[in-house]
Amino acid sequence: MTASLKAALDPCSIAVIGASENPNKIGGRPLLYLSRFGFRGAVHPINPNRGEVQGLRAVPRLSDLDEAPDLAVIAVPGEAAVAALDECAAVGVKVAVMMASGFGETAGGKAREAEMAARARARGLRVVGPNSQGLANFGTGAVASFSTMFIEAPPADGPVGIVSQSGAMSVVPYGLLRGRGIGVRHAHATGNDADVTVCELAASVAEDPGLRLLLLYLESIPDPHHLAQAAAVARARDLPIVALKSGRTPAGQAAALSHTGALANEDRVVDAFLEQHGIWRARDTGDLVAAAELYLKGWRPAGRRLVAISNSGATCVLAADAASAVGMPLEPLAADTQARLRTILPSFAATANPVDITAALLTNSRLFGEILPVIAADPSADAFLIGVPVAGQGYDVPAFARDAAAFAAETGKPVVVNAPQPGVAAAFRDQGLPVFASEGGAVQALHQFIAHHELIARAAPAVPAPPRRAPAGPARLLNEAESLARLAAAGLPVVPHRLCRSAEEAVAALDALGAPVAVKGCSRDVPHKSDLGLVHLGLREPDGVARAVAACRDGLARAGAAYEGVIVAAMVQGRRELLIGAHRDPSFGPVVVIGDGGRYVEALPDSQILLPPFGPEAVRAALARLRIAPILAGVRGEPPFALDAFVAAVCAVGRLMEDPAIDSLDVNPILVGTDETACLALDAVIVVRDPAD
Amino acid sequence: MTASLKAALDPCSIAVIGASENPNKIGGRPLLYLSRFGFRGAVHPINPNRGEVQGLRAVPRLSDLDEAPDLAVIAVPGEAAVAALDECAAVGVKVAVMMASGFGETAGGKAREAEMAARARARGLRVVGPNSQGLANFGTGAVASFSTMFIEAPPADGPVGIVSQSGAMSVVPYGLLRGRGIGVRHAHATGNDADVTVCELAASVAEDPGLRLLLLYLESIPDPHHLAQAAAVARARDLPIVALKSGRTPAGQAAALSHTGALANEDRVVDAFLEQHGIWRARDTGDLVAAAELYLKGWRPAGRRLVAISNSGATCVLAADAASAVGMPLEPLAADTQARLRTILPSFAATANPVDITAALLTNSRLFGEILPVIAADPSADAFLIGVPVAGQGYDVPAFARDAAAFAAETGKPVVVNAPQPGVAAAFRDQGLPVFASEGGAVQALHQFIAHHELIARAAPAVPAPPRRAPAGPARLLNEAESLARLAAAGLPVVPHRLCRSAEEAVAALDALGAPVAVKGCSRDVPHKSDLGLVHLGLREPDGVARAVAACRDGLARAGAAYEGVIVAAMVQGRRELLIGAHRDPSFGPVVVIGDGGRYVEALPDSQILLPPFGPEAVRAALARLRIAPILAGVRGEPPFALDAFVAAVCAVGRLMEDPAIDSLDVNPILVGTDETACLALDAVIVVRDPAD
């Protein structure tokens, strides 16, 4: 953890600029909380009009203090806040938490905010905010926040950390978790992220050895290297991260811009990045906290096979449906297990999996406790769902809950409970089991928990490389010959071809390459040739080739494009046209796209994203996620495609994109077939940037 | 409502066979409930060993009663239950509710159950169950059920009806609704549906004029005509139906078979059927009740445009994302509205939509009440989301709730509230507003409510046609010539072709049709020709045609298939190959499938289902849902496809399937192009059934 962010998370002393006697004002709440939640360091109200605020001695100005505080809360608005920030820098405050709104989230406010933050940073002051609700560490009592939530849902220190841009989203998950009895140590809101970003703070919070679950709310990820660093720290510490990244849609991005000044990220790049770093992406507030209890139990899922047990057949059916939908199989229990269950349960009960105890449980509450040890010994399960949708009078619910807890302890495997009735839910929850109100909710949380562990296991080693800056010159197109040459140099298999200036050279190329050939006009001014009549296919005779050269020359002239020759290329056959594309995301850097090719690439998109660095395994996994994956594997008696050369080509493109001078590239089509020699790039466009003059 | 089901829902007198003194036994609960919940009719405990049960005079046998009761609860198990059922039939009981398990849900039990039910039915006795938890009508107090839920969550009569196969799923939604203060009139569980099915009972329940929302839980739909009837009654009464149909997946279907003996339905046929009848399909227990408050408010949504208002920018962003994801646009508020909002809100607040009040609400609670009337007057909204993710001390939450309720009343438009804090939620709920714990939950419920109304508006007039029985003979293939002739007779455009017995006839056909032609071996024994070398394309010369005829003759002989001639067909060009298929679902009857054609129909499925009867509009809507819809509409400068002839062909297939002798058909490919004459069926296979000998 950097020293400056240690002062944010664990300050020794705190000043509140704009301290208020009223604990319901922004400048009053932090004082209330620092006193109420046991902060042991010095607290200094700053108020020019009062000698004492909330029982603490106040001074008029920050400079009146004997010593600069580690952290200053700036609870004054507008220009006064800017002045206070400068004052913090002047006296040597380490971190300022700036609560004032009206900066980067307003039209034209971004530049002013950046300038203000840069000025502070240059003088050694880190800034959280502006537009921040504040920081809250319940491990130390350093609660420099004005959130109302800490009054409404009193804190308890615990193993969860929350780092959020939004104030509300720093405390809504807190409130939901506290309502379920889970302790939360950190609840930080970074606001506009003018200096300290939510990702940088998360990387520091991840170092807290007391944490076992880290939750993030992000509206933008301008600094993925910080998030990668947080992920690396978390992975090393076995700390799962669940992130809710909003601004998925244009409407959401517009709202985020006017909320925290957040700039839009391409959403499926965000998906790919989070996946690469082992971070589970939640889709909604509820999702963010849904599986918290599972993470905190310390279970290590070994697989996805679910065994469901209920006194309701409907719960069995719904759980089986929900599990199947997320790829969790229900395997039949062993014959021996089933035989033992049949000696306990009524004849009409189901014993295969799901296990339906039936309404006989009403007559005999002991059935539940009797079958669980039998099932615990069965080898068919990696995880369990216990459903008690209806119970109460006539049932020994406390015994069910005790039996289920003992079962969970005995198996050491994840157990979720479906219990929509509040009383039944409370009994199971009191025994430490994760309880859900529907079969779907229980299965989804279990699936998230298991799939997240799978994700963490296969996540790429985090390499938080600092972003490389592209040359400052304007973007320019390489022509097809240059593009293909660049790809060939990078190791991609490229169709045999010659760049020819004249008809004579083209005819010679026909001889050399063998008929038939394609003739294509070559110009750095023309990325899309076919619309301009610059592509002539299947030429077998010298006359035809010569005519094609003339037509290309004419076509380019008509388009006002430079004539840089024609490409004469062998006509080759493949079974399918794929594509490889790459571009540079303003935040995430190189992005490689692979997919099905052909005429309808935009209308019928079928592509997957890869973020360099990646290896052949990641490419194969991406291919397996394409819609056309069954065809690549071979259907209707067709042989499978040979894809090693294609996979190697994609890896080569990934490496090529490490060169910051390459802005984007498009290899389309690249043929593939049933043997590796069929893999050939037929056409390509590369856009480069040169150094500025 | 049939008289017999009136006795199920509103009986004048009830006997309980196997009446128990213990209210926690299956035979004790109904007596407890009939007494506790105010049933005014006669109640007769039947018990051979006691003169009095739970304070009521008991008689040993049903035949000891002076008069047959309307309804008898059979609370004895196994063979005693079967005997009791026969006794009910003998004395003239109208409806028996059979609670015993161990019938159709067990291996081999289906036939025995059907026989038992048929015997009762033949004597005028309707049977609910077996394996039924019972019927509960809180409007009359006729609660002939043993569910524990009615002790745990005391009833209140209200506008919701629940009809379920499963006992648990008849009361879990009940419990969730009661927990939210919503009254429930009906909570019926039909069990194995040996006679009265959940759909038939639902059709009767739908007639209750007190209902404003009907919820169904189904594990199987063997009698769609009953469900169609329920839908027709409900539509006439403006009663929305939400259904949870489980057994979506093979694992769920297996579990349903051993729960209620439910047979599997093809899940996407279920989807299409429910949609056709205006029934919203819930995906989980939570879904089933999520939007209940919205239905009960009596709102009439006029469109999908959402306006979101919150004191949290994150709620604004998350609501915008969630709304966009379900196709609900956020349009900017009118300039005038925004100008007025800017006079009220701080300068850094967002006024376009979403409206972000910001944390300034903490300092000034009146902001909320001041902006709502301004927004109410704006024309840009069809529905509203109000998000108060954090409030409490320092905020005037009761005023927010009152203001929001007044706003909802003034606009008459749907309003949902996102309030994850229990105290804040309670304040809004007390004002009669639907409250949710997350932005996603609120938007999803609102979307369901609006999309369901759209669904009801476009639902086909319900035509509960009794299923027509197919001829009993075995299925047999028509050959290609017969199949094409049948299609042509039905009005489909079919490729010009001749059926020829000899090479001479084939050569004459070449002359008549013009070169090139296709020659295909024709045999009722061979549905798939290309694998056997029976398809010869692009023939231009008499020699080639003659050789093709010989090759077809040889190929059929080698395959041991009858030679019924060759089809000589014109070779025609179209821009794309589509397909039309049809089959007969064992429950739902005719199912028509349309989709993209070509080699990879199975590997890359892109098809939609239509249930006859349907018209051209439904076909066009189905085409618009295909993945290839953009291509059909014209992309990359291509002209759109002319699809009137194809749409008419699909409608013709729908009518053709009204003939129960047609088992299935497959028109693949059927060409389409840019003018209507391009629409031609190139190949077809029809499977028919003949009357039994």
From TrEMBL, chains A, B:
Keyword Cell inner membrane set for record: no
SMART domains found in the cross-reference section: CoA_binding
InterPro entries listed in its UniProt record: ATP_grasp_subdomain_1, CoA-bd, Ligase_CoA_dom, NAD(P)-bd_dom_sf, Succ_CoA_lig_flav_dom, Succinyl-CoA_synth-like
Keyword Protein biosynthesis: no
Keywords for the protein's UniProt record, in alphabetical order: Tricarboxylic acid cycle
Stored Pfam families: ATP-grasp_5, CoA_binding_2, Ligase_CoA_2, Succ_CoA_lig
Domain CoA-binding: 8-103
Name the UniProt record assigns to this protein: Trans-feruloyl-CoA synthase FCS1
Species annotation: Methylobacterium isbiliense
